[in-house]
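User: What would this chain look like folded?
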Amino acid sequence: MNAPSTTTPIRSWLRHQRDLPQRLLDRVVTWFIADRHADYGFAVMRIASGSFLLGWLLLNLPIASRIWGPGSGYWQPYREILGYNFPFDLLQSAGPGVFWLWYIVTIALVVAFLLGWRTRIVTPLLFIAYTALNGQNTPISDGGNYFIRIMLIYLILVDVSRRWSLDARRRAATASPETQTGSVLHNIGLCLVVAQVCIVYFEAGLYKVQGTLWQNGTAVYYPLQSVAYGVFPGLTDLLTQWTLPVFIATYVTVIAQIAFPFLLFNTVTRRIALITLLGMHLSIAVLMGLPFFSGIMASADAVLVSGATWIAIATWLRTTLTQNRFALRLTEKVGTLRARKTAPAGETRRDEKAEPAPVE
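Assistant: Here's the prediction, encoded as structure tokens.
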């Protein structure tokens, strides 16, 4: 009689999974070196955050000297407490000429960053220029200012101009190869950006849940009704007239922020989380008058959207903008004008003579 087998299902499974650590390591290494992930998402983040930075600098242009330039010298004791070191303290003793030169250069760097021109060089320079400018008067800054400064550090590692940029056009023309080192750095930057986004949302959710107003479901009511954030009083009065919408908005905000890191592991739950937070950012931008903060935060969420989705959105936008009646008529007129300019002079005159006279 044969002895009974001592092999158990667990031992059998462990025996077949002996190479699991090696396979996991191979997958991780391949993920880091095989491709540069979220390249379309980073392109959207670059364009969106660059647009908001450019708008912020241009809108504050008339008062820039008073809030960041020589007119902001009264903030010097506060700057000393913050302890900014070189090169972020270069503007503290700068005169009007140096300040305006710095401001114009910062705008130029933002434009280059937005268009995706030489971003490997432009991104670290923009981080220095913007941080030095923002550090002149931090009390007027909001979460968007601080968040984009952190993001710019991570974006130094990232190939943010791989898609939809001047760099991408130049590389396509010269057939420049991509290096594995660049891919590894890009994907490390992606991990840092996603980790930072998760930390911000998770920490904000944990901070909110400790408050009594967030626990009883009324927290959203108060900022919407405050004088400081009441941009559209009539609209906010309408939205806060009933208890149920305020209650739902309060709890959905807290739950979405706390659960955000865990919802990313599934495609369906990730989409739900991103749509929910996008709605939250749009509400903050419109109802509370904080478009810069909301836009910067939402731009970072773009890296979590798949490249196929961004391609579909870009295709839809291109079709909508170029296939409407006005665009088609404008294209036809431009084509006619170009044909007239490129045609020989004699043919143009003959065509003009051949045209029938208008009937009156």
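The mean pLDDT is 86. If you want, I can go into more detail on any region.
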